[in-house]
Amino acid sequence: MRIENIELVRIALPLVTPFRTSFGTANERVTTLVRVSTADAEGWAEHAAEPDPLYSPEFLDGGDLVIREHLIPRLQALGDSLTAEHVATALAPVKGHQMSKAVLETAILDAQLKERGISFGAHLGAVHESVPAGVSVGIMDSLDELLDAVGRYLDEGYLRIKLKIEPGWDIEPVRLVRERFGPDILLQVDANTAYTLADARHLARLDPFDLLLIEQPLPEDDILGHAGLARLISTPICLDESIESARDAAAAIALGACSVINVKPARVGGYFEARRIHDVAAANGVPVWCGGMLETGIGRAANVALAALPNFVMPGDTSASSRYYEQDVTAPFILDAGRLHVPTGPGIGVDVLPDVLASLTTSTVDIRF
Ligand code: OSB
Ligand code: MG
């Protein structure tokens, strides 16, 4: 494939409501979009990192720098033989920076699939036309506010609720949501590394509430801690931050550190590695679901395609655009009986709205290839 240029487009979109986790509060989504232009196609992808390195070591300004100084030159060195399938190998000498690698691989894959008229879903092996949508509910100022928010999401049709938790906002919110909305709603929690193994007895107090899982209770490098915790609580453990590759997934499963995996393509370096995690988990009887990073329609489109693979058996954090944004940069993803439709058009299957993009753009960098 012959790439003509790669543009980095920094945008900032206001969130409809602040999103608070154990590591911080976001009022807007700031991201770098990558546009890959060939003679016949334009590929798009979205950087998953946040402005600050609080969820993972990656952060947006660092990502832009690594992309320009370290990653793009390695792709340029491949010349016209470059395809999406070559990207990970070409970038492997650069340690880490999965999200920056992922955004390049994904934009190149989008351009390539558009040239060939194939959708992400078809290319990745999707087996469903729509996927069940969950919603990730942030930490709130009060329990009343939380119950209102959960009630509204359930009314909208979301099929699973995930509550963000942290010490001081855990047992009580879960108890109240369970009491108010009953035993039948699918409910899970996400701690974003806010606890230690010494909190095991406290976390065991979540056991009576029949949660689907607890996501990433302990620090990302504490695989043995998660394995220990799994023996002390009955809520299944799901890993997010800890899993940066299919090898990580295989190790975590083998060590008994998780019985569910949250697959975020960006966190693991792209959709091909995400699919390998899906396959490793499936081979071990471990269910997976698709996580999110508050993506715009660009990142969401590809995530929804991935979530249609057969071992994505639990609802993902693939919510409708309206959960995040009043005005998305693509046509909005809309909830249909609690599900999102998998795009069927070439590549990611959604178009960027040029006027909206222009109004949200704060800077651009154009790199001739
Ligand atoms: O841990 O899953 C997480 C958002 C930003 C960073 C980390 C996480 C999240 C979410 C939101 O939970 C998922 C979404 O709706 O995109
Ligand atoms: Mg998480």
TrEMBL record:
Family annotation (CDD domains): NAAAR
Swiss-Prot/TrEMBL GO biological process terms: menaquinone biosynthetic process
InterPro entries noted in UniProt: Enolase-like_C_sf, Enolase-like_N, Enolase_C-like, Mandelate_racemase_C, OSBS/NAAAR
Keywords assigned: Lyase, Magnesium, Metal-binding
Names of required cofactors: a divalent metal cation
Transmembrane segments: none
Top-rank EC class of the record's enzyme: lyase
Start and end residues of each Mandelate racemase/muconate lactonizing enzyme C-terminal domain: 143-236
Entry EC no(s): 4.2.1.113
GO terms for MF: metal ion binding; O-succinylbenzoate synthase activity
Protein name: o-succinylbenzoate synthase
